[in-house]
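Purpose: get a first structural picture of the assembly so the mutagenesis plan has something to point at.
Setup: two entries, given in the order below. No constraints added.
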Amino acid sequence: MTEELHDVRLVVNGTPHEVRVPARRLLSDALRHDLGLTGTHVGCEHGVCGACTILMDGRPVRACLVLAVSAVDTELTTVEGLAEPDGSLSPVQQAFKECHGLQCGFCTPGFLTTVTAGLRDNPTPTHEECRDMVAGNLCRCTGYQNIVKAVERAAEIIGERA
Amino acid sequence: MKPPAFEYVAAESEEQALELKDRYGDDARFLAGGQSLVPLLSMRLASPSTLVDINGLPDLDAVTVASDGVRVGALARHADVLAHVEARRVQPLLAMALAHVAHATIRNRGTTVGSIVHADAAAEMPMVLTLLGGSVEAASVRGTRTIPAPELFLGPLESSLAHDEVATTAFFPALAPGAGVAFDEIARRHGDYALCGVAALVDGDTVRAGFVSVSDVPTVVDLSGVADEDLGEAALAALDPAEDIHASAAYRSQLVRVLTTRVVRAARDHASDRASDRASDRARGTA
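Result (C-alpha cells, whole complex):
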C-alpha cells in the first residue's frame, strides 16, 4: 500500500517551502528531514522535553505535537530564524552565551525559542517568572541555574538594545 | 515514535466533519489541539483510520461570556481561555485551574474542550467542569444534545460521547455572587501532572471540592457541614488515591488531607473578599 502524500506549504522563518509529506509526518520531522532545518532538535517525541519547541504564529508550540499537514497557513519560526538580520546573535542567544546557559546544546533550540516569545510577552520578568518561563523545557546538563540567569540577562540586553 | 498511517481530511465545514464521523465512527478521530492525541498516535496507543482536522473550521475558537457563564468553543486554546479577562471575572476558577494545565507551550496549542473530552482524571479541566456543574454540547448528524458533566465521564479516558459525536462547546456556569472558589495542586514540577489537585466551591453553607489524580474519574465531594479538621478524612472517604511511579498512595492521601483543608479555606476567603468588594462597590455607588 502506498501512503497518500499531501502537498503542504510551510512558511519557515519568512521563507515559503512546498513539501510533499504523508499526513502522519510530524512537523518536527518535516522541518528536519524535508527542509533540512536541523536546528530544531527532537528529544522525547511526545511533548515532554521541549527540545523541539518552535514558534507558530509567534507562540511557542511543540513541533513534535503538530502534524505538518495542520501547519498550513501559519508562520513558523525555528532557532535558525532567531538571529538578527545582520547575522549577529539575538539578545536571548547572546545571553545564553554570556551566562553559559548551555553545555551540550541539545535542549538549547527549544529554550531559545521559548524564551524569545516569553520575553516578548513579558519584557521585565521577575526571577520566579523567568523560572516559570522555562518550566516546560528539560535540560540534563546545566542544572538550570545558568539558564534562568540567561533569561534574566536576556531581558537586560533587550532593554539595553531598545 | 512515529504515528501509524491514517487518512487525513482537513474539514471544510462542520457538516462535512460530522458526516465523516458518522461514516467512520470510532475509526475516525477529531484533531483539534492534538496535545493528547498526537502523543497517543506517536506511542501507537491510538491508531484511527481517519483523522478529521477541525482546525480550519470557523467560529469554533470563540470564548463567549454571558452573565450565566462562559461558553468555550472546541478550538479555543487553553492560553486564550486563560487570558480572557471577562471569562475570569464571571468564573474565576477557570483561570485559577488553567494556570496549572500543562506548560504554557502546551496551552498555546491544546484546547480546553479537547482536554475535557479526553476525560483524563489527572487533568484539571474535566474536574473543574464537574465541580461547577457545567456541561458539554455534542453534535452529530443526528442533531445536538447537552451532556451534563457528571454524565460525561464514564471511566479513565472514557467519555460518554457517542461514536458519531463531537463536542463543540463546553459551558462553565458563572460563579454565584456570594460564592468563592480556589484551586491548588502539588506536582513534581509546575506544569507536570498533579500528584494531587483540589478545587473548592463555597457558596453559603454549601462546600464542594473536586479532585485531580486521586480517582479514576473526575470526582466531586460534598463537604457541607464538615468541620475544618475533618475535611481531609471526609474527602478521602470518597476517593481512591493510587500508587504509581511518582507517588505512593499514602503520600497522595496526605496531599488530599492537606490540600482539601487549604483549598476550602482559600475558597471561603475568596467568597468573603468578593462580598467585601461588592460592599465597597455599593458604598462607592451610593456615596
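The mean pLDDT of chain A is 97.
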